[in-house]
Design brief:
The protein is mainly β. The protein is built from 1 helix and 21 strands. Strand 19 and strand 20 form a beta hairpin. This is Phosphate-selective porin O and P.
């Protein structure tokens, strides 16, 4: 109620404030390199998205409102056609403190291949396979900025369910996921009040983050069931968890050391997972304008049930080529090798460059190799794809 009263008090000022409009839109063509496993699926898929942004400041810059919307239309998959409010928040800043109220996105983490500590926002699972696209999360966040570090406390009053591909979409399991009938451990279901706290500080060449989360897991398990047509289905199950996390980044000459680790309690069980490694930069390779970075990260998870664990004993090797041109051209390529199964691996390529001030092209590719049914990647063994995107920024 206090927040509403404060906003009403600022309404005359907001009405006079200048509103900045920006955003992006894109056409994306995805092509799968193999015939599909299931008859409903196609090899080619066209989609478009529109992501407008509005921003305004008032009260001498101490207050601001940010809106980021998102809508995608997908040619094949009705579940991938969706809309979301990525952010819609009021930010009030004081001396060494800040309050954010509304829908927001928060990213925690340092590593390239896996984001273990990043837990505030739910993954928008239909957007991409790397899990880096997130749904907007309702929250109230209070941040305190001091010499001894930045501390933020989050109250998360509403849970967002993960999105999954539908029957006509690729990159899905053989049994449809029933997103209309999720199961919660909490009796309050999606209205369970989650909370989190994070402290971040820079100590010389080291950036250190410590975090704790208590609430509904963003990673669902699955319960075999039947839908209203008595067909087999998988119902997402969201348990309550408590998770402590640490993330570290250190700059040492051309070396960048990265680490993320978590200890999570779920359903009376504890497990540990971490990912760590380095990125080494060759600046001006062979006296050229090009920079080449080499990356290596090891991924570990000690859970006994590895049904839904994609990184339990894996090694990522990659390279990033930065052209240092006016168009910002760069290419990131890598491979993730399962160290338990020699025939289980995934490769990826991400390349992008500006065409002019408004247009940009992007190329993404994922290649999967797996003949081990116990591995989650086995479900994707026929889903190698290349995607070309033409993006417009305004």
């Amino acid at each position: 109620m206090k927040t509403l009263i404060s906003l009403i008090a600022f309404l005359p000022t907001i009405a006079l404030a200048e509103i900045e409009y920006s955003g992006s839109a894109a056409v994306e063509q995805r092509y799968f390199l193999q015939d599909a496993l299931y008859p409903q699926q196609e090899r080619a898929n066209l989609s478009v998205y529109f992501a407008p942004e509005l921003y305004t400041r008032f009260n001498d810059g101490n207050d601001s409102i940010l809106f980021k919307g998102f809508y995608r239309f997908d040619q094949q998959d009705a579940e991938r056609t969706h809309a979301d409010i990525r952010e819609f928040k009021w930010i009030h800043s004081g001396n060494e403190w800040q309050v954010q109220t509304g829908i927001s996105k928060v990213f925690w983490g340092q590593t390239e291949s896996l984001h273990l500590v990043d837990i505030i926002n739910q993954t928008d699972g239909v957007e991409s396979i790397d899990g880096e696209d997130k749904l907007g999360q309702p929250m109230v966040a209070f941040s305190l900025f001091k010499d001894w570090g930045n501390t933020t406390v989050f109250v998360l009053p509403y849970f967002r369910e993960r999105t999954f591909s539908g029957n006509d979409g690729r990159l899905r399991p053989p049994i449809a996921i029933d997103t209309d009938n999720p199961i919660y451990e909490s009796e309050d279901e999606e209205k369970n009040i989650d909370w989190a706290i994070r402290w971040q500080h820079t100590l010389g060449d080291w950036d250190v983050g410590l975090s704790y989360f208590d609430g509904t897991s963003r990673d669902p398990d699955f319960v075999l069931s039947t839908n209203e047509l008595l067909e087999p289905s998988l119902r997402p199950f969201y348990p309550q968890i408590q998770q402590a996390g640490i993330d570290v980044l250190a700059l040492m000459g051309g070396w960048t050391i990265k680490f993320e680790g978590i200890q999570r309690k779920v359903m009376e069980q504890d497990f540990t997972a971490f990912v760590g490694g380095f990125e080494y930069s060759f600046v001006g390779l062979f006296n050229s304008i090009y920079d080449v970075n080499w990356l290596m990260e090891y991924q570990y998870d000690d859970r006994e049930d590895l049904t839904n664990v994609v990184a339990q004993n894996d090694l990522m090797l990659g390279t990033r080529l930065v052209f240092n041109d006016i168009d910002g051209t760069q290419i990131l390529a890598g491979i993730v090798q399962d160290l338990d199964y020699s025939n289980v691996r995934a490769g990826f390529i991400e390349a992008s460059s500006r065409i002019n001030n408004h247009w940009k092209w992007r190329l993404d590719a994922w290649l999967f190799s797996s003949d081990e049914p116990a591995e989650p990647s086995y479900l994707l063994r026929r889903d190698d794809y290349v995607q070309f995107s033409l993006e417009y920024y305004f």
